């Protein structure tokens, strides 16, 4: 893990070499001046304090120089501080931003099938906390690099002072380094465990709040709280484990330089007796140990964060290197205002990596140009999957989907998006204005086109009643609108692009029957320019279709006019006449009851 | 959201925080005692250096190794004691603070569930999750790193000041003179930092919303080929976030450097004044040297405290947000012990002069911490509802979109309270019914049948965890859904995916219905619970539901009028009022009425061929 973490650091440095240099430069300046400060203090004691106190005379000039040098060192350190921390911060934030852009680009590039396989929460944390974790050690990195430089310089300078004192220094620094490595080794499994539990706590909270309505209406708040508390307790125990280790090692690491200072006193006294060093040397070295105590921790910070960083990096990489991109072709359909033809040829489709359980088998049908075809079938029979295939949100496992005789996978994205519009069962509203939601900033969609689309989608009246009309902001997921209003808005979005093929996946289910009837008859008025594939249950909706494709268990069971199917396909008849039959049966029961009571 | 955490509210946040987590006080005295001892050890080294120089290195007969060794041995022993104390303090601290924080997490989680639906809709759910995750983590950072460091730092400052004053009160004045301006400068920067961190928080929120939109709306973005637009929005949000972070960092670093300036000033001042004093014979070399070491011991905590106070702005803001949630009183509260249970037997419902209006949304106003006595109300969604629904009847509530049907269901199940009037179940006002009784006897199936990321069986068992496999299959059989369940890849053990997304919308509704069915309620409220199910299945479900709920009260909110036909009574809601009621056959007699028109349209929709 440590090695992987170091590789992440290497990557980061290669991506932002300039800022890294600024940070390390600042850090080295700071470190060198810290060491210089120790010598300045030692020198001041030896050259200014001792003579002055011994001679009972304080020369003003010398004092001023001493004070000036000390202050100048501080000024230099401030410059170093700015360089180190701003360099490190800028580097860290830029890397975060760069990777966030790359990851979100990947999200937009990867196909819908990939999105189906990944939980929303995971993708959000990939773009947020995983990227944060990956570049977390960047913040203390220049400090740590500077500290290493400082340590080496300090040891070298010690050798110039006295090799025995230098030996003490080397011993202490090696001990510190060793402890820091032990620290990060022992810490990393505990930190990862805590991190994993943190994600679990978050997942429980997320799901539980998402399902708040169910939790509340079933009165399961206490059980949910217990479920959450169990995870929170696990997390607490994991964090206490982290704390115990930190609590043990922190004081040891903190005190090591102090023990070094004490060792310097003993060894220094011995060397002083031998005449090898002066009092000033001993004071300088002792002071050096005191000022080094803190920066040495920076190495620990980097090492301690490396395992977490490696994990975050791996998760981010799994998005960046994800395969299975849906490649678009180069062909373009000729620009025309004529409706398109949609054809399914022996299409087979299964979700998941292993398509052991195909959702669709050998689906073949056609939506001829300018016609409306209704896709009818029981709940869970594969209708929405057919809709997704038609809009090329997913690709078939076998067989082909064609628009105007071109296999959809050979078309460019722009050509495809300009030709086909899918209105999904569950409407998706962007956190934007009504106008933004309808136009999606597509070319050629002006206000006039927006109002025209809203009119056909029967959304004109409610939009004009909004406080700011088209400029009204709808908020996250459009929660300010009712379900039916959201559906009509997304329908308007589809119409605004003037598609040549419109796919309605039960897209008016939350719209009142009368409003739906109005929408569908408007669509029929427009039928010269658009072919329609619609998933529907309502008979009136189906009746508008020129042809019906009836599916059961992922197979096309029958195709034909509504009347033909009604007469010849029992499953279909059963489905579409369900309400009538139920009413009739009820009438019979009632009549029977009345007869009995009479 | 960006309300400035002023100094006054910093203390009040801390006080409220401590009041809400009494666990934090456990063994506090002991922990503080250990902290003092751990700090005391730090002063030992400069003292050892002074003694070592004065009586050891500069002894009358040159360096005296015996004296030095003695001093070093004593100091080493003190250091060891310090380490032990620090370890014990840390362990106590981590244990106490993590236990307290786990408690806060859980209490906040429960409290969010207790807050009403209104609240859950007006605030973004993602931000509610961070109340029990990120915000609490920030608090732990503050308590374990910040809080203690601050305490230890102040301890170190105090002890160092005392020792410094013992060596020389004049030099101590010099040091304090150098650091006095820092206090004011830090306070100034603290205010700017609060603003800067507030901006970071807002930008993070915006960025996460943009990312989430690109993930949740992936299919739409692809279908419409509008990647470019989404990319530019994401890029802007990511860039704003980066620049806000950098601004905050710059402010923080600038504030931090003043500690270094002061340190240089203090050291230089000590040398000058110290030499002047020493030349006069008031100070030895060892004392002055020790003093210089003491200055570093003084500088360290000041710098660390600056850093911690900077970070504290963030931590306290997190704490503040958690407390704000905990302070909000649930507007639909469980009467608990003061309440009553519903009388046994079938439930009848009575709406008595009920009016309802949602709170008016004031743009840019966040959730307020204080409960306002008279919240502003929007237009009335329901007015003058005054009706009785007899026990054991099946009632359908119909009306156009936005007529107030769903509000009716929410009032009935006490997800909200009326703004005027009252709802009574079996003669007991809903506000007096204990939740334990209410939620067992009254169950609602919402339109969006939320499923947990588990198996079909787990989701049905959510209502009754003790349900055996056999009973589970029986339930599906009774509902006529056995064929459907058996057709799933792994039967009842099929994983439904996140929010049930591995199933189709209609299938999710089937599971939600089964879940409500096994809960065995006396009053079942269906809010368009089968809106995405195919007609044949719906009709079948309706018949089986009719059979299995016979003898209970069922209220169905419906936009498919097949439900209304089957009901004993239909309530027609139009613009917030009940305009018609009666059996279907009676209501349909007047083709000019609201119901007559709705029904005509329904027939047209379902019968036209």
Automatic annotation (TrEMBL), chain B:
Residues 29-314 form the ABC transmembrane type-1 domain. It is found in: Cell membrane. InterPro entries: AAA+_ATPase, ABC1_TM_dom, ABC1_TM_sf, ABC_transporter-like_ATP-bd, ABC_transporter-like_CS, P-loop_NTPase, Type_1_exporter. The keyword Nucleotide-binding applies. GO terms for cellular component: plasma membrane. The chain crosses the membrane at residues 24-45, 65-89, 148-167, 173-190, 261-281. Residues 349-600 form the ABC transporter domain. Its main location: membrane. The keyword Transmembrane helix applies. GO terms for molecular function: ABC-type oligopeptide transporter activity; ATP binding; ATP hydrolysis activity. It is a multi-pass membrane protein. Keywords: ATP-binding, Cell membrane, Membrane, Nucleotide-binding, Transmembrane, Transmembrane helix, Transport. Pfam families: ABC_membrane, ABC_tran. It comes from the Bacteria. Belongs to the ABC transporter superfamily. Lipid exporter (TC 3.A.1.106) family. This is Multidrug ABC transporter ATP-binding protein.
């Amino acid at each position: 893990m440590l090695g992987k973490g170091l590789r992440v650091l290497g990557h980061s440095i290669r991506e932002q070499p300039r800022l890294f240099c600024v940070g390390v430069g600042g850090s080295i300046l700071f470190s060198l001046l810290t060491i210089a400060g120790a010598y300045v203090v030692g020198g001041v004691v030896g050259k200014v304090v001792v003579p002055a106190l011994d001679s009972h005379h304080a020369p003003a000039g010398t004092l001023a120089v001493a004070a000036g040098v000390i202050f100048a060192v501080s000024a230099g350190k401030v410059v170093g501080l700015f360089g180190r921390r701003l360099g490190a911060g800028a580097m860290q934030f830029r890397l975060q931003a760069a990777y966030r852009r790359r990851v979100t680009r990947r999200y937009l590039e990867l196909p819908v099938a990939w999105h189906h396989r990944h939980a929303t929460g995971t993708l959000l944390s990939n773009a947020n906390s995983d990227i944060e974790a990956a570049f977390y050690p960047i913040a203390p990195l220049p400090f740590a690099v500077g500290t290493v430089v400082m340590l080496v310089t300090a040891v070298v300078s010690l050798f110039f002072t006295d090799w025995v004192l230098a030996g003490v220094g080397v011993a202490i620094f090696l001990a510190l380094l060793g402890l820091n490595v032990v620290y990060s080794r022992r810490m990393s499994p505990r930190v990862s465990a805590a991190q994993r539990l943190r994600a679990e706590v978050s997942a429980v909270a997320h799901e539980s709040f998402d399902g708040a309505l169910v939790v509340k209406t079933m009165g399961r708040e206490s059980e949910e709280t217990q479920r959450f508390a169990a995870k929170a307790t696990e997390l607490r125990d994991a964090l206490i484990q982290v704390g115990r280790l930190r609590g043990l090692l922190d004081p040891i690491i903190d005190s090591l330089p102090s023990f070094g200072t004490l060792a310097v006193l003993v060894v220094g006294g011995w060397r002083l007796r031998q005449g090898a060093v002066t009092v000033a040397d001993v004071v300088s070295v002792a002071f050096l140990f005191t000022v080094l105590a803190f920066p040495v921790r920076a190495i620990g910070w980097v090492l301690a964060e490396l395992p977490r960083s490696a994990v975050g990096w791996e998760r981010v990489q799994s998005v960046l290197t994800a395969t299975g991109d849906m490649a678009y072709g180069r062909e373009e359909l000729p620009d025309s205002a004529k409706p398109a033809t949609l054809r399914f040829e022996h299409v087979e489709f299964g979700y998941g990596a292993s398509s052991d359980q195909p959702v669709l088998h050998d689906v073949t049908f056609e939506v001829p140009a300018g016609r409306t075809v209704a896709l009818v079938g029981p709940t869970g029979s594969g209708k929405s999957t057919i809709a997704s295939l038609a809009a090329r949100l997913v690709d078939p496992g076998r067989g082909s989907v064609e628009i105007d005789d071109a296999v959809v996978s050979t078309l460019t994205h722009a050509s495809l998006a300009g030709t086909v519009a899918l209105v999904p069962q569950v409407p998706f509203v962007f956190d934007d204005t009504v106008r933004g939601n309808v136009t999606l900033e597509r070319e050629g969609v002006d206000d006039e086109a927006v109002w025209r689309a809203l009119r056909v989608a029967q959304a004109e009246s409610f939009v004009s009643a909004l406080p700011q009309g088209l400029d009204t902001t709808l908020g996250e997921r459009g929660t300010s609108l009712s379900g039916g209003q959201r559906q009509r808005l997304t329908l308007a979005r589809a119409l605004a692009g003037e598609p040549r093929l419109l796919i309605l996946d039960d897209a008016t289910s939350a719209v009142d029957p009368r409003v739906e009837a109005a929408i569908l008859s408007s669509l029929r008025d427009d039928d010269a320019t658009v072919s329609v594939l619609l998933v529907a249950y309502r008979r009136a909706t189906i009746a508008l279709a020129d042809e019906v494709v009836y599916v059961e268990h992922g197979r096309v069971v029958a195709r034909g006019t509504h009347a033909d199917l009604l007469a010849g396909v029992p499953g279909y008849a059963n489905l579409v006449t369900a309400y009538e039959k139920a009413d009739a049966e009820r009438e019979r029961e009632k009549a029977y009851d009345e007869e009995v009571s009479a | 959201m960006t309300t400035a955490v002023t100094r006054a509210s910093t203390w009040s946040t801390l006080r409220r925080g401590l009041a809400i987590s009494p666990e934090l006080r456990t063994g506090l005295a002991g922990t503080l005692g250990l902290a003092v001892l751990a700090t005391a050890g730090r002063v030992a080294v400069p003292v050892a250096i002074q003694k070592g120089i004065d009586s050891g290195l500069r002894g009358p007969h040159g360096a005296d190794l015996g004296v030095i060794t003695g001093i070093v041995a004593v100091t080493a022993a003190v250091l060891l004691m310090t380490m032990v104390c620090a370890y014990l303090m840390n362990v106590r601290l981590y244990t106490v603070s993590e236990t307290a924080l786990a408690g806060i997490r859980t209490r906040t989680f429960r409290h969010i569930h207790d807050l009403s639906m209104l609240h859950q809709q007006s605030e973004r759910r993602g931000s509610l999750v961070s109340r029990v995750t990120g915000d609490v983590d920030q608090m732990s950072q503050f308590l374990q790193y910040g809080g203690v460091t601050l305490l230890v730092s102040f301890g170190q400052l105090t002890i160092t000041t005392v020792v410094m004053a013992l060596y020389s009160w004049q030099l101590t004045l010099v040091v304090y003179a150098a650091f006095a301006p820092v206090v004011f400068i830090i306070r100034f920067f603290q205010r700017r930092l609060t603003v800067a961190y507030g901006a970071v928080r807002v930008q993070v929120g915006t960025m996460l919303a943009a990312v989430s939109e690109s993930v949740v709306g992936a299919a739409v973005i692809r279908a419409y080929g509008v990647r470019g637009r989404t990319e530019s929005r994401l890029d802007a949000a990511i860039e704003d976030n980066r620049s806000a972070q950098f601004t905050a960092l710059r402010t923080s670093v600038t504030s931090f450097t003043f500690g270094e300036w002061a340190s240089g000033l203090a050291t230089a001042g000590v040398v000058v004044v110290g030499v002047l004093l020493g030349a006069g014979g008031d100070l030895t070399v060892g004392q002055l040297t020790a003093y210089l070491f003491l200055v570093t011991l003084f500088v360290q905590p000041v710098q660390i405290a600056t850093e911690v106070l900077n970070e504290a702005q963030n931590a306290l803001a997190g704490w503040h947000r958690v407390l704000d949630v905990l302070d909000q009183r649930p507007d639909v509260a469980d009467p608990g012990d003061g309440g009553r249970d519903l009388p046994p037997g079938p439930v009848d419902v009575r709406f008595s002069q009920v009016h309802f209006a949602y709170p008016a949304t004031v743009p840019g106003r966040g959730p307020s911490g204080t409960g306002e006595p008279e919240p502003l109300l929007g237009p009335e969604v329901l007015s003058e509802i005054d009706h009785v629904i007899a026990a054991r009847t099946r009632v359908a509530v119909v009306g156009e979109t936005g007529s107030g049907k769903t509000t009716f269901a929410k009032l009935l199940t006490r997800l909200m309270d009326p703004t005027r009037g009252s709802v009574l179940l079996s003669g007991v006002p809903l506000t007096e019914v204990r939740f334990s009784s209410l939620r067992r006897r009254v169950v609602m199936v919402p339109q969006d049948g939320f499923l947990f990321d588990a198996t079909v069986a787990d989701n049905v068992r959510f209502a009754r965890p003790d349900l055996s496999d056999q009973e589970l299959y029986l339930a599906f059989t009774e509902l006529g859904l056995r064929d459907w369940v058996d057709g799933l890849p792994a039967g009842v053990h099929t994983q439904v995916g996140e929010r049930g997304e591995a199933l189709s919308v209609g299938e999710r509704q089937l599971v939600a219905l089964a879940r409500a069915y096994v809960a065995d309620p006396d009053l079942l409220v269906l809010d368009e619970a089968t809106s995405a199910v195919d007609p044949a299945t719906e009709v079948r479900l309706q018949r089986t539901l009719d059979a299995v709920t016979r003898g209970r009260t069922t209220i169905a909110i419906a936009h498919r009028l097949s439900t209304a036909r089957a009901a004993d009574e239909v309530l027609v809601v139009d613009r917030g009022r009940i305009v018609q009621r009666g059996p279907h056959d009676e209501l349909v007699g007047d083709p000019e009425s609201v119901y007559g028109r709705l029904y005509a349209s329904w027939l047209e929709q379902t019968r036209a061929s």
